[in-house]
Design brief:
The complex is a heterodimer of chains A (732) and B (202). With 732 residues, chain A is of the alpha+beta class. Helix content of chain A is 41%, strand content 20%. In chain A, the strands form 4 sheets. In chain A, strands 13-12-11-16-15-14 form a 6-stranded antiparallel beta sheet. The longest helix of chain A is centred in the N-terminal third of the chain and has 44 residues, at 180-223. In chain B, helix 1 crosses helix 6. The chains are: A alpha+beta (732), B alpha+beta (202). Chain A binds chain B through residues 63-65, 68-69, 72, 75-87, 104, 106, 108, 128-129, 132-138, 140-141, 160-166, 168, 182-183, 186, 193, and chain B through 21, 24-25, 28-29, 66-71, 90, 93-94, 96, 99, 105-106, 109-110, 112-113, 116-117, 119-120, 123-124, 127-128, 131-140.
Chain lengths: 732, 202
């Protein structure tokens, strides 16, 4: 035994210097060798374990799953592996932190020793075991065979009948490799791999969630009824826009993004570009979350301009805090703007209507009304020409519609050929249009060249370079009074608003025209009434009322001017007997004749001839001296004489004669005209008293209070007809 | 090489003894009962074995544990698992999910030991029959197609192949495995002689 131990130490001692656990078991599980590495791992000293059954220290090795496999080895069977996966701790050995070393064990059959066994074979065996080299061979059988093996004396207890042919006994050499570190590394690797796999899965899940949440946000963004965009200020292009772009602009988001820096020049209304640029200049000074608003127009794919209200804020900044991207919404406010514009135009229209109506009311003069209208309308429409065509009243029996019209009023741009005074024949006055106009149909023509117009109309319009026009009928009751026409020398799309304005204006204008015409008629009636009120119907001379007014008026005037006012009163001599002789119709005729003669004798416009009474006439001569008045009186006498109206009942002449009383005075403001009448009356009385058919003068004292005052104040002067020498009036 | 039914029966019995021993060891090792089916044994030429196995394994990647033996009786014993079976077996034995796509150390370690047990069982039975001690190399684990495994296993024209196909049954799982023994012709003759002696003795 001692010899065996010694031999084994000689042969296997080399295993003390390898970093693996190595132990040699005899077929009775007695430990024959125990290297220092195992001493270190198990803390079991070699001296203690050698010669002892290993199952004393490690009872689990007596279990069948180990024992049976060891038996194969002891029978010289193939090497046996106890892998670190299935048998982690074949020879339990603590490592660190109370962990156990993980072991990979290879058990090899080693022929029971004989002294001649080559020592160097053992390290080779260990090396080949460790390196798992398949080609590494056990020592040649011949070298290992030794009949001096002590195991020969023991009976082999193999239950499986492994009986070597030469009954050779084998030792089991356990080579235990510490793979703790390797296993841990592998476990760490597996953990790492599992974590990586899990991370990948988590990442995939997160990405999926992100995708779905992006999808969710995308859906929200696309469902929002306005444009959502992110505009990059430095790159000057949109980096995001939502799906509403398709609805609101007619471009897909991709198309918008593909516009790159041409975005603004492609879509923004040119006039709005400077405002937009100015708007963007505000962002450097804008706080985060501060929203900047701007209204601007964008072009829809269809070419239509749409109004948008942009609400922008800084979305991202550069490293130095400068705004880089702005996030904004743009709401389509086209309808709102349209309503606003409609309201504005409505206001403008109402204002214009008010202005025109006011102007119309300020004047009842038709011409002025029409001139105001065309001026205001042309200003409103910014048209080249606005004019009113007045239809010539229909005269013919078969004239259903006016044949011609004349341009009566016109407001025209300086560079256009005027049409004022032009007569328009057959110009849109035919039956068809007439009916249309009567029903107040309005004809907007955007372009005469494309409208289906009769050639003669086109020709007429071409003369005045008219390309577009708007015609509104002016209707008075059932009659087509005229047309209000607006002309443009370039094609023009008339707006509904303009048509409506002109339509309502036409109604107003028709009323104004009616009013003006009524006013004209009224004025004519008034003139007539006035004439009726001041005329003597029989003689067509001024009546007594008119005489009194006129005399009073002239009295005051001459009093102011201190010029003489003269009055002639005349009376047809023996008119009672004339009436008796010739009857009243004859008397009336006589009165007319005399009136005519007196009227003929008085030439100055300021002089007034009036029928003063039944057969009495009066002549007011402003600014006329007594001498002048006497001349007029004499002229009257001559005219009457020239009539040679037979007067059978006259006692002074075969013809009708007059007695005339003349008075003259420089009126004083403190006295009345009665004094002059009284004086003339007095003179007339004297003329009759002195034998009729004569002229008597009487010059009242202007300072006298009453005409029928003292006789001394009234000095009758008699002028015989033949006597042409004018005597100086006698003064008191 | 043509074997008589008796010879084949004897061979089959020999392999069966080895596998039975391996099954016993495996049963001791793991808690679940493991059962090895009685193998179907054929003796084939190198050309035939390639065809048979390629058809059987469908050209897929396989895992193999090889054991070389030398001396007067030389050759190669290997246990071949289809990849799926290998993975199932490893999971069964270690409770760990083995990666099927790489040379996972857990798989290598586990399969090496299982292969080692099975081959040792069979080789033990053979060496016992021959009353001869064989020299063995350390078991080796390798992966590849059947063609590369056979080539690396030294399948030459002067070899005879003993193919034993069996199935491991663990907890109703079927894990297929093929035991391939490649012998030198002279070695096979030695084996046959021993079998004949055994058969004659029966």
């Amino acid at each position: 035994m001692i010899e065996e131990k010694k031999t084994i130490e000689e042969k296997f001692g080399v295993l003390d210097s390898v970093p693996v656990g190595a132990c040699l078991l005899r077929d009775d599980f007695v430990v024959l060798f125990w290297n220092t590495c195992l001493e270190d791992w198990t803390k079991i000293p070699r001296d203690e374990i050698l010669g002892t059954k290993i199952t004393t220290y490690f009872p689990h090795l007596s279990q069948l799953k180990y024992a049976n496999r060891f038996q194969q080895i002891f029978a010289g069977g193939p090497p046996t592996i106890f892998s670190s996966q299935i048998h982690k701790h074949l020879i339990p050995a603590t490592w660190q932190d109370s962990l156990q070393r993980i072991q990979q064990t290879t058990v090899t059959a080693v022929p029971a020793l004989s002294p001649g066994c080559a020592q160097q074979d053992i390290p080779d065996l260990v090396r080949s075991t460790l390196e798992l080299e398949p080609e590494a061979m056990l020592p040649e059988e011949g070298e290992a065979v030794d009949d001096a093996s002590p195991s020969n004396s023991r009976t082999s207890a193999s239950p499986y009948g492994f009986v070597p042919s030469n009954y050779q006994s084998f030792y089991a050499l356990l080579v235990i490799q510490d793979v703790t570190d390797l296993t841990h590394r592998i476990q760490a690797y597996r953990t790492m791999r599992d974590q990586a796999l899990e991370e990948v899965q988590v990442r995939q899940r997160v990405e999926e969630e992100l995708r779905s949440s992006q999808h969710f946000i995308q859906q929200i963004a696309d469902a929002a009824p306005y444009l959502l965009y992110i505009y990059d200020l430095t790159e000057q292009r949109n980096v995001y826009v939502n799906g509403q772009a398709s609805n609101l602009l007619g471009y897909t988001p991709q198309e918008i993004l593909q516009m790159q820096t041409a975005l603004y020049s492609s879509l923004v209304y040119p006039e709005d570009l400077p405002r937009l640029k100015a708007h963007q200049q505000k962002f450097p000074s804008a706080q985060d979350g501060h929203i900047l608003e701007l209204d601007y127009r964008l072009k829809h794919r269809s070419g239509e301009w749409r109004w948008f209200r942009g609400r922008d804020q800084v979305f991202a900044r550069t490293a130095d805090g400068w705004p880089k991207q702005i996030f904004g919404t743009a709401q389509d406010i086209t309808e709102y703007k349209r309503a606003e514009e409609a309201l504005r135009q409505q206001n403008e229209r109402e204002l214009l209507m008010a202005t025109i109506t006011q102007h119309i009311r300020q004047s009842l003069d038709l011409g002025e009304v029409l001139r105001t209208t065309v001026t205001e309308v042309r200003h409103f429409l910014q048209a080249d020409r606005v004019m009113i065509v007045r239809f010539n009243p229909c005269t013919g029996t078969f004239c259903l519609s006016p044949a011609t019209g004349a341009v009566t009023v016109e407001s025209v741009a300086p560079n256009c050929k005027p049409m004022l005074g032009e007569t328009l024949e057959n110009f849109c006055f035919d039956q068809f249009y007439h009916e249309a106009y009567r029903h107040r149909a309005i004809r907007p023509i955007a372009d005469v060249l494309t409208a289906d117009l009769p050639q003669y109309q086109i020709d007429v319009l071409a003369q005045f370079a008219v390309r577009a026009y708007l015609v509104v009928p002016l209707v008075q009751g059932d009659e087509l009074w005229g047309l209000l026409m607006a002309h443009q020398c370039s094609p023009r799309q008339w707006m509904q608003l303009e048509v409506e304005l002109l339509s309502s204006l036409a109604t107003q204008l028709a009323i104004a025209i009616k009013q003006a015409e009524l006013y004209q008629q009224l004025q004519a009636a008034n003139l007539k009434l006035e004439r009726l009120a001041t005329l003597d119907e029989l003689t067509q001379l001024a009546n007594r009322r008119r005489f009194d007014q006129y005399l009073e008026m002239e009295w005051r005037r001459q009093a102011r001017e201190q010029t003489p006012l003269s009055l002639i009163l005349c009376d047809i001599d023996s008119f009672k007997s004339y009436n008796d002789t010739y009857g009243h119709p004859g008397g009336d005729e006589c009165l007319r004749q005399v009136a005519g003669a007196i009227g003929n004798a008085v030439n100055r416009p300021a002089d007034l001839v009036a029928r003063y009474g039944g057969e009495e006439f009066a002549v007011i001569l402003p600014n006329t001296t007594i001498q002048g008045a006497v001349k007029v009186a004499e002229h009257i006498q001559l005219k009457i004489a020239a009539l040679q109206l037979p007067h059978a009942g006259s006692q002074v002449s075969p013809y009708v004669t007059l007695s005339l009383g003349v008075a003259s005075i420089v009126p004083a403001s403190e006295s009345g005209a009665e004094i002059l009448i009284a004086a003339a009356d007095q003179a007339l009385y004297q003329a009759k008293r002195l034998g009729r058919d004569r002229i008597q003068l009487y010059q009242p004292d202007p300072t006298a209070g009453k005409p029928n005052g003292t006789a001394a104040s009234m000095l009758p002067v008699d002028f015989s007809i033949p006597n042409t020498n004018l005597p100086s009036p006698t003064s008191a | 090489m043509k074997l008589s039914p008796r010879q084949l029966d004897a061979l089959q019995e020999l392999v069966n003894i080895g596998i039975g021993q391996a099954a016993g060891i495996l049963n001791d090792m793991i808690d679940s009962p493991i059962r090895l089916q009685i193998p179907y044994v054929q003796i084939l030429t190198p050309q035939d074995v390639k065809e048979v196995l390629e058809e059987h394994l469908n050209g897929e990647q396989i895992a193999a544990v090889q054991l070389k033996f030398t001396g007067s009786f030389g050759g190669l014993a290997q246990l071949v698992f289809p990849t799926d079976s290998a993975a199932m077996l490893v999971t069964m034995l270690t409770g760990e999910e083995a990666g099927t796509h790489d040379l996972d150390s857990v798989k290598i370690g586990t399969l090496s030991e299982v292969g080692n047990i099975v081959i040792n069982g069979v080789m033990g039975a053979i060496s016992n029959l021959l009353q001869q001690r064989l020299n063995y190399s350390i078991p080796n684990y390798t992966e590849g197609t059947i063609a590369t495994l056979l080539t690396s296993g030294g399948l030459g024209t002067d070899t005879v192949v003993l193919l034993a196909q069996t199935t491991f049954m663990i907890e109703r799982l079927q894990i297929e495995g093929d035991i391939i023994l490649i012998f030198n012709v002279s070695s096979f003759d030695t084996l046959l002689a021993a079998i004949n002696q055994l058969a004659g003795g029966l």
